[in-house]
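Below is how a single chain appears once it has passed through the pipeline. First comes the sequence as given, then the structure the pipeline wrote out for it. We keep one example in the README because the format questions we get most often are answered faster by looking than by reading.
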Amino acid sequence: MTAYKYKALSPDGSKVNGVVEAYDEFEAVARIKESCPVVLKVEPVPERKWKRIDLNEPLWVSDKVLSLTASQFAILLRAGMPMSRTVEVIAQQITDRLMKRILTETAKDVSAGYSLSHSLETRGKKIPLTFIETLRAGEESGTLEQSFEKLTAYYEKSHKIRSKVRGAMMYPIFLAILAVVVIAVVITVTVPVMSDIIVEGGGELPLPTRMLLGMSAFFSKWWWLVLGVIAALVIGLKLYGRTEKGRTRFARIALRIPILGNINRMNAASQFANTMSTLLTAGLPITRALAITGKVMDNYAVGLSVRNCALGIEEGKRLGDVLRGSPMLPPLLTEMTAVGEESGSLEDTLDTIGTYFDSEVEQASAKALSMLEPIITVVLGLVIGFIVLALYLPMFTMYNSM
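Resulting structure:
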């Protein structure tokens, strides 16, 4: 909703100033006329450029919170509680600050007669499109409780698979960061202290020692430049990643990375199957379901490919046929989709194949972890071995010459 400030005449003819919330000016005028028969002026209140930021509020609504919220809605609606009261109760009970704020604002709109999906779409800019469109389809078909139950299962499954993938990747990432920190401390702190001893020993220094002393001198003097270059590179890549070309290129690279690329591809297949199954079960037409699925895909390139499939459906082609033209999705997904489409059980088939790829992502993540750990350990051992060799090789030379 938008806040509108107005000037009007009260029934006794006196001028009145005030503020009213409405979706547009027509609704604002209608609300004002409930108490003031003559409206003189209505204009939207300009939004503040700088809004107070709640640092304790999450940046987005997590899958876990969405699953819990959908579950609470399904339970209360099945118990016969009115929608307006249901939104109020859940807003009071939920602990997530972002969802609490969204539902608190939504409760006012629902009490005023607006649909839940329309209000969430207006208020909850950080709520996924899949959630909103599934609710809209449930409202139109009169199966809102079933839509909430489907969303509960969908986001609970999504939360589990994301948590497992993150958990599998956290250890190698932590190990890599720790290795970089240790090497940086050794080069900038330990090596300069020992360099004086090495140089005082005289004689020609071995090549590894000269290389290590050169790197130490460079990083000790120009560390600020190195950090500046890294920061500039990160910012440049982020800005490029926000462009259409950059997002597409990075997404394609993510599908080609050794080991991780296969996980990203299977995760995309899992997300496609689960999302399409949820939307089709809710009653959305296949073209609309493809368009929404394409928008919510984690991988931008795969999302574009899925959205383009909607054009093929509009031309009269079958879903299995248009998916075969998308090389980014696994062949098993496209073939199983075609089988489900031909047998008339597309939603169930997509749900089954989604569960299959969930399991595949979990196993691939565990396999990737088992491969990355020794790789990182070997690389770290080689770097530390080089440093130790460079430090102690001149000392051995000094002892032999004594």
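The CA atoms of residues 41 and 304 lie 45 Å apart.

See the next section for the split statistics.
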